[in-house]
Write a structure and sequence with these properties.
homodimer; mainly alpha; Transcription Regulator spoIIAA; 2 domains; 24 helices; 8 strands; 6% strand
């Protein structure tokens, strides 16, 4: 078997890298335990599901994945999408949320594998940068709102943001100061440990900076458990409650066809978003060392990870940003780091769950809140808006649709909007009427240069491939050019035309007919080879007659110019 | 009021043209009466609805329409779409089919008007030529199948083609030879009158050729009524039955919001298809005289026609191909011809309905069958397939989807497929590695010309605007170009790049980072003005450093070449 196919990182492995991976695995696990439980809560699932999602999936990813650093496991945005999907699906079909989430992982995994095998990685093209930016920002806001009930200790039955906010607003007097304080303290501890403490240890060169400086969440978690247990505060703070000290049982979620089809849409969106997040993280980290990753292989890796999640009562996973950066900084060299992390999580699951049961829920809410803030990037909004107003509008529309209509519908609306913008742009290509720069063979836009035009001849350059969205525009442009008084010849300069589809060909024929009806000839110039093949196959050169096809604009000008003189003489 | 806005054809009117329009109106009416009843039956509506649809709508079209010849009224494909939509909607909401069809006309009319006012004529871009061709062919097959029960006199409850065919196949022994004979006789009479008889009269120069040569359907209809009455064959042939000898009562169909929204999707598709048919007919006829029509005005005209249909218990209308050609050939000069035709239909409705009631249904089926055959154009299939394989596949897919899944879903699938093909094409632009043709300043594709390349420099020309579908391809192409051994500089020649969106910009930045990480510089050359503005706004020139932006490929080659020599010296 080809080593680069399965376990592609194996050849890089030696004792040194394995040691570095072990350390990195410890750091990742220190983040995975609190984050896993927090994200599972966000997804509306019991805390151990988040830990299960950190066990087998990283190992499964390691089978095919090509990123050295990618830490695969539960992430915030996918958890939000799972929460939305399971809420709707579980209710409609009477399936419990844990099984629904596992089914989602299974279908996602199958879809990702399939996309990898069919090399459909290009499907992620549909998630353009403005759509992704708008989606992530709005998702972050939704996640933050969803944590309010935990932080304020106010019971809200529904999960849609408007109901949550209005319920909370109506019960402000019932806010529990202890949960609010706990969440704030959690955030402060994490920022303090990951910030000043980490920097101090790094500067003191104790070799612990990297390790401790990423353990803020773990420190907060341990502190909270210890303090809550010692001070009797546990009465004031809702706790996680029972976590079974057991490994996930391998099990197949319900698998009838109707059910899987019903899951399909949500699973596809989860797959796309998860893959995009994973690939952009993996690519950014690889670029730091001038390396690159192979997206179609990443599809297989993530597909395997999600299949593993689906078979072990876990829920959809992907490569997360924060843990991956930490893994890279902590010196991970191969996906073995993720495997080591999984082993540490396993130990926690087997030995430490009784301790974790005393953890106040508000701590998890604090961890989530801090994590999602990084998803909102005002700088990215500004860059996109400055660079391209249309992309800016797609961004705003996506964000608003996600906030107001919902996570899935909003994402689909954003994708549709970005495709519409593209079609709109293709439908109105740039067109220049060109003339010759005196004394040269160069032909340029007459609005930008001092050019001379032949009397009776109009030369039009269309800067776009001729395709169905612009076929009407093409016909109107040519007919328009031939409608000005005195014009006898119209030359279409096709130097920027890389393709002609059937609809554009029909439009071209209609333009020929209309122009001929008015006694105007249509000519072509600078037709590229493949386009010419296509035109010849359907007999366009004959249709053009008495119009001609010239090799270059210069040829067209010379030929039409001499004919003109001939007429005048 | 500006004359060219309302009644745009008014200024062309004088006694002569009015006279010609009167004759043309008579010819159109002679087709409208049988076709109107036949298409109404196809739409699953009583025969008089087809006549109602020929009264006010042509007059309403004349208010805004810009085509001289367009004969607005019931057409086959729209009737099929109405049949599909009303079958589903009437059943689900318990509204009778006549009201449902009128509601569809009303909503279609409003949508068309709205599209006209907002100048959304470009929406029809989405119906590309292969989609329209595949759709019309498949619709013709569906229509032909739907006429089988009438022709064979076999009762079929369902309307989906598979059930119709299987029911018919199971009851072949019950075929009524009289109805089959009547349908065949109808087809033969029409072809004989419109063919040999018309040609003979034309050649004999009796001035009647044009008139009689288009009245085949009318002749068949009159013959059938006379023969059936005289011979007592009416017992063997199911007849149309009662037609109220009354004008349609102006009435508003049911108008609650939920109902209108429910209609919206079907009405939109009917509007788009109707508009496309109408515009292509109008455009083809106008082109014959070197004229053109104004699509946004056509939207208003058709919108008014459908609003009129909706308010007079009729059903959706559009400009039909066969009647429009006939109108043009019969000498119609203005839409007044349609108004005259409406007056003749009115007379039929008031005076002749008792006669029509004896008409065998099989005659109408014969008329429909003959009309839809022209919708299937093997030549068009061949042209599209030869010219562009991808378009050919969209065509086949659309036709299959319409046949197997349904009229509306099939059309939507076709539109989606053509957009996917476009995105796919944009996602893999043509890329050329270029070099200098020795002794010149010209740079050309190294695979097509004998060129010389600078050592250590790779020049890549991407022949497409840089947008989200090709951003990943762009990044991979650039990174790839910089990965070959010995390459220190990569030049992206942007001569064919008319636009850069935010996603492509991000890809460009990622390529810069990856290449810089490997000690390779990325340069740009031949960046167009508007693209350069965009790149400068987000600081790309600084990001490029130490890469540069060259005015021309020649400049890039000179500068990088001299640097290279400097290094070597």
């Amino acid at each position: 078997m080809n080593k680069t196919w399965l376990l592609p990182w194996w050849r890089d492995l030696d004792r040194l890298t394995a040691g570095r991976d072990l350390v990195a695995g410890l750091v990742i696990a220190a983040m995975l335990v609190p984050q896993g439980m927090a994200y599972a809560a966000l997804a509306g699932l019991p805390p151990q599901v988040g830990l299960y999602a950190s066990l087998l999936p990283p190992a499964a990813y390691a089978l095919f994945g090509t990123s050295r650093y990618l830490a695969v496991g539960p992430v915030a945005v996918v958890s939000l999408m799972v929460a939305t999907a399971t809420a709707a699906l579980s209710q409609r079909h009477g399936v419990d949320p844990v099984s629904t989430a596992a089914s989602l992982a299974l279908v996602s995994g199958a879809l990702l594998m399939l996309m990898g095998i069919l090399r459909l990685g290009f499907l992620t093209h549909f998630l353009s940068r403005p759509v992704l930016t708008g989606f992530l920002s709005a998702a972050a806001v939704l996640i933050a709102v969803s944590q309010l009930p935990q932080i304020l200790d106010i019971r809200v039955e529904a999960s849609d943001p408007v109901t949550v906010l209005s319920t909370v607003a109506g019960q402000l007097e019932q806010i529990n100061p202890w949960t609010v304080g706990t969440a704030l303290a959690t955030i402060l501890v994490i920022r303090w440990v990951n910030g000043p403490v980490g920097r101090f240890l790094s500067r003191a060169n104790l070799g612990l900076g990297v390790l401790v400086g990423r353990m803020g969440a773990l420190v907060a978690l341990v502190l909270a458990i210890v303090l809550a247990s010692l001070t009797g505060l546990s009465d004031q703070l809702p706790q996680i409650g029972e976590i079974p000290a057991a490994l996930p049982r391998p099990s197949l979620p319900p698998l009838d066809t109707a059910w899987l089809l019903e899951l399909g849409g949500a699973a596809l969106l989860i797959s796309l978003v998860g893959f995009m997040e994973s690939v952009s993280v993996g690519r950014a980290l690889a670029a730091r060392e001038g390396e690159s990753i192979r997206p179609d292989r990443e599809l297989l890796g993530l597909g395997a990870a999600n299949l593993a999640a689906g078979l072990t009562s876990a829920y959809p996973v992907t490569g997360g940003l924060s843990r991956s950066i930490v893994a890279a900084d902590a010196g991970a060299r191969t996906p073995l780091a993720g495997v080591f992390a999984a082993i540490f999580v396993l130990l926690v699951l087997l030995l430490a769950t009784p301790l974790l049961e005393a953890l106040p829920r508000a701590v998890l809410a604090g961890i989530v809140l801090l994590a999602v803030v990084q998803l909102i990037s005002p700088r990215e909004w500004r860059t996109i808006w400055i660079q391209d107003r249309r992309d800016g509008m797609v961004l705003v529309l996506t964000a608003l649709a996600v906030l107001l209509v919902g996570v899935e519908a909003g994402l689909v609306a954003g994708i549709a909007a970005s495709i519409l913008v593209l079609l709109w742009r293709v439908s109105r290509p740039h067109v220049a009427v060109v003339g010759r720069i005196a004394g040269t063979e160069h032909f340029r836009n007459r609005e930008r240069h001092e050019v001379e035009e032949l009397p009776g001849v109009r030369m039009v350059r269309v800067d776009e491939s001729l395709q169905f969205p612009n076929s009407r525009f093409l016909r109107d442009t040519l007919v328009q050019a031939g409608s000005e008084p005195g014009i006898r010849d119209v030359v279409l300069i096709a130097s920027a035309v890389n393709d002609v589809d059937a609809t554009a060909l029909e439009a071209l024929e209609e333009a020929i007919d209309t122009l001929n009806g008015r006694g105007v000839r249509l000519h072509l110039a600078e037709v590229k080879g493949p386009v010419m093949d296509r035109l010849e196959r359907v007999g366009l050169p004959e249709r053009l007659h008495p119009g001609e096809i010239f090799l270059s604009t210069h040829d067209a000008a010379r030929s039409l110019g001499s004919r003109m003189r001939h007429v005048h003489e």
